[in-house]
Amino acid sequence: MSRGGALRRLAAHEGRWLVSLVWWVARRRIGVAPGERALGYAAAQAALLYGLAFVCVVETVGLSALFAGRPVVHGVLLVLDVYTVLMVLGLQASAVTRPHVLGADVLWLRDGARRELRIPVGRIASVRYDLRFSREEGRAGDGAAAGAPAGVAEFAVGGQTSVSVELVEPVVVVGLLGQRATVGTVRFHADDPRAAVRAVREAVAGAGDGSRGDATGARGDMTGAGGARVTRP
């Protein structure tokens, strides 16, 4: 991807977590329609991020006192420190306001404001509780290069995943900077993974065999974060 394209994707990501802060304050969730089930995943990282935000606030106060006599340096550091605090809180806000969503036809997995993947439930071969520590390549969404044998995509929280989804056929996942990976297995974390597994199994059973063969309909499209299309390989 070109440098300009990468910068546009990063700017879109910044906009998403900033918007998430507003929705977080309003105690609302993004993209959860009536009748759909939200599968939260933010609890596992809450303590870490709130602790990090507290440390950043303490650092901001300390640096403000240290450079009180140097207004230019004080102003620059204050802007950077406030932005850092907002960014840390934005990570938590995006996870809270953008949960995984299970509808009648689609399992919508999200990694805060970074990336997302819509999986038609008819494409799901199996789902199971599967507690694992995440892999570096899986967290990046690069289980295998596009065109290579299908790999694994991980939507990890706190360095772990707890639900594994096996797909009927591989799909291509688009990462934050536009990197593409072919995956046949998707792993994600849920605050209540066993309940998430039961819910997904019920949705798959309700979808029936007919929806599994729908590879070209609108519900079969898969979309990456920022609206980038995720297509079948």
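The above is record 1. Record 2 follows with the same two-line structure.
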Amino acid sequence: MFRGQFVSVTRIAFIIVTLVFLVLAGRELYASIRTASISIVAERIERGETVADDVVAKYASHSVDVVDGHYCRSDIVAAGVTLVLAQLDRQNVNVNYDTWAAAASSARQYLRYALSCMPTNSNFWLRLAAVQSIIAEEPAAVAGMMKRSVVLAPYDQVMILTRFYFWNDFTDATLAAAKSALDSDLTTMLKLGDRCRVNATIKEISPQLRPIFDQAWTSVGDSATARFRQRCSK
């Protein structure tokens, strides 16, 4: 009798677990189908293919589906990031301010959602800092985002070189507010970075970043920086 009851309970538990997995699998399939077009267009952009402005605008607007659907799958979220940033990059604040402002606001809102899904993504923190800086460069806020990006990827060369591009564009106030993170990036880049890639990155340094960079260059010493005087093959 007891054995029969045990078998029945086991069967019920198995059925419940199976149903749960079927529901989860169905939701993932539905998410993939609903966001397939976003992923396809994002992949084309990431591959460097030409994508018309109206196509980017159309599918960037669909990123709201990711938020409304509460999809936190990394591939879906990342595709949305690619699209909203591509849409913002294609706007000219001097030609059509309203469209630029809408794209910037949408990108910021989406990046905040992306970080709620993946708070340890260094690149998303960097992109949010960049978007915030062009909307209104609040030094403390932007510096905080940059610090998160550095902490989450302190030795990733791709991220360090990408961050340098934005460090190079920030104001004195933001650079001062994020000095510890900036110093960490510059020191790591000069000590450990690939000579040719770093040389290409530091070819042009903004006036506000120059004194900080020169100080970092001096602090790491000649033994570390001597290699940058060697020529790089094309």
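DSSP finds 14 helices and no strands in the chain.
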